[in-house]
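BACKBONE GEOMETRY TOKENS:
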Amino acid sequence: MNLERSLRPCTALAALAAAALALPGVQAACCYFSAKDQDVLQPSQKAFITWDEKEKVETFTVQPKFEGNAKDFGMVIPTPSRPKLDEISRDFFKELAVFTILEPMDLTKYKQVLTLAARGAATPASPALLSRVRVLEAGVVGTLEYKIVQADEASVLFKWLEENAYSYAGDEKTLELYIKKGWYFTVMKIDPVQMKKRDDGSYEGEVTPTRFTFASEKLVYPLKITQLSVKDKTEALLYVLADEKMDLPEDSSYQLTFAPMWSQATSFAIPEKVTDAEKAWQDHLKDRIPKLAERAGFLQSKGRQPGKLEWAKRLGDADMEVLAGTRPYNREAPKEDVEKLKVLQGHLKKGKYLTKIRKVFAKDEMEEDLVFVRAAVGEKRDDIEYFSILPTSPP
């Protein structure tokens, strides 16, 4: 067994499992499942989001997981403009998780690693309705039937959903927020019989991954609509591909926990191995770490959780070669999964920054949609990469 594995024998497996599995009882973001008089839960959801700031074009690819006993149900996804829908490989998110496993620790850079590992890492419709609900498009993507609609009033859309057997069980107030902003709604009808049937007669499965492409003035993720189906909190795993490293705003920022962890890890590095950019960032953080850590502690005492940065890198030639299978994959993962990394080709692009963020949202944090921001601490932008294990990385 090599030294990296002896230090962190479960790191790769834990990272892969964390990406693939959800916490028990936790639902998730972006869309809303609905079924009349029946429970349909979202125990997990993953999203891959891309943003072209120059062209003002956003995409998000979502794959919700569901559990329930409904014979059929609907899914409602709002977007700020009319989307184009495409089916994505069912292996997409599995392979994205494999690609973003942290690489082994750079043992040529960090000192005192064995000592640190020994003591543990730091914890840081009617005719009237038809005239006001406009069906702009109808079709099939993968196994999902969909319609793209617009409406002028929430009460009319609410009634239309009911009459068309989408059985939207939310409140009109939330729909009204999106209608006032002129957003579009994609509604999908799902047949659970195609999914796995459990011993109790209910169904569970994952919806076909679907990519939505649409024009948007800002990088936004529709979080508000999911509040309707959340009891107290929801976990979201978000992969963001953009020109720059991205973050969640304010108290949701991963800087509250990542900056102190990264700063401590850098103190274990051999000075000659620390880059000029890392030295400058360390100097910038020096006087800000106590306040960041204090704010994180305060939020956690109130039952809130800042975001967690799990992977961040500007993609280069080497990454494209790994996807193509022409460069060795240097993490631990099943051989068949490594061979399927090719499904990510064309989705992950050279020169773009891929940022992987996990965040548990309390229900009262979901009053507005999620708008991503450029990663920064104070006035200085953050371009620090995180793609290999640090001495202080969580297990």
